[in-house]
Design goal:
271 residues, 35% strand, 5-stranded mixed β-sheet, Ribosomal Protein S5, domain 2, alpha+beta
């Protein structure tokens, strides 16, 4: 049994510039129309956005030499884009406001251009990925995604989100959620040379019993974790609307393992 989907790329090229999320240096990314799936370009290198090309999952997802791809990948997947050529200058994507919302706004402004058909076949059984309390379950479905974030006994404890994903729901309920860190992590993270492109407007800080800055959602952390999960699983090349996914306490490393298993279980054919 297989499912057919229209393939979409951007109608026109669109660019974003700013500080690299972790390195803090100047960064620029441009999404161009493409027809070979999602492909990143850095200098002379051309790297397909597939799980086997992931080179690091500490604090972000790195594809070949290109770091922090997950927010843009999430925006592309959430809005239903299947193909694009992505040119990166600076080795890392810009932090923007710490969420996927600026990418959503730019991609929506560019618009969609249909570029063929996508056939997905082979997802006949549930795919489980887990380690201790970390779990991800993926099944053939209709776009029902859920995530449970739990940092108990530390505040804010357990947060759970369940959504039926389509472009409008993604843009409204997921894209605007920012990356976050616990207050006690901030200085050690910066000492490691990470998070240097973030500030109080682009990062949510979790204090002992409240957010240090104004949150965009009462449960913004779980929404951002779902945002990251969508971006990482998009590496498998399967539209979000073809899957039902539930996850518990997963991060980039386990997300990419799940994407690898998903990609191995399906056949994705472009025409």
């Amino acid at each position: 049994m297989s499912k057919l989907f229209p393939r979409f790329t951007v109608a026109d090229s669109i660019s974003w510039s700013g500080k690299a999320l972790h390195g803090g240096g100047p960064s620029r990314v441009t999404v161009h129309p493409g027809t070979d799936g999602i492909v990143f370009r850095s200098g002379d290198q051309r790297i397909a956005a597939i799980p086997e090309n992931v080179t690091d999952t500490r604090r972000c997802t790195q594809l070949g030499p290109v770091s922090t791809i997950e927010h843009l990948m999430s925006a592309l997947a959430g809005l239903g884009f299947t193909d694009a050529e992505i040119e990166v200058e600076g080795g890392e994507l810009p932090a923007m406001d710490g969420s996927a919302q600026p990418f959503v706004e730019g991609l929506s402004q560019s618009g969609k251009a249909e570029c063929g058909r996508l056939e997905v076949s082979g997802l006949f059984k549930r795919i489980f990925t887990g380690e201790d309390e970390i779990k991800i379950a993926i099944a053939d479905g209709d776009g029902d995604w859920s995530y449970e974030y739990d940092c108990s006994p530390r505040w804010p404890g357990r947060q759970q989100l369940e959504l039926h994903l389509d472009p409008a729901t993604y843009a409204r309920e997921v894209a605007n959620a920012r990356t976050f860190a616990f207050r006690e992590e901030v200085e050690p993270i910066r000492a490691l040379g990470l998070g240097l492109g973030l500030d109080e407007d682009s990062c949510l800080i979790l204090g002992d019993a409240e957010y240090d800055f104004l949150a965009r959602f009462r449960d913004e952390p779980v929404r951002h974790k779902l945002l990251d999960l969508i971006g990482d699983l998009a590496l498998a090349g399967v539209p979000v609307s073809a899957l039902d996914v539930s996850a518990h306490r997963s991060g980039h490393r386990m997300n990419v393992i799940a994407a690898t298993r998903l990609a191995a279980s399906v056949t994705v054919t472009r025409s």
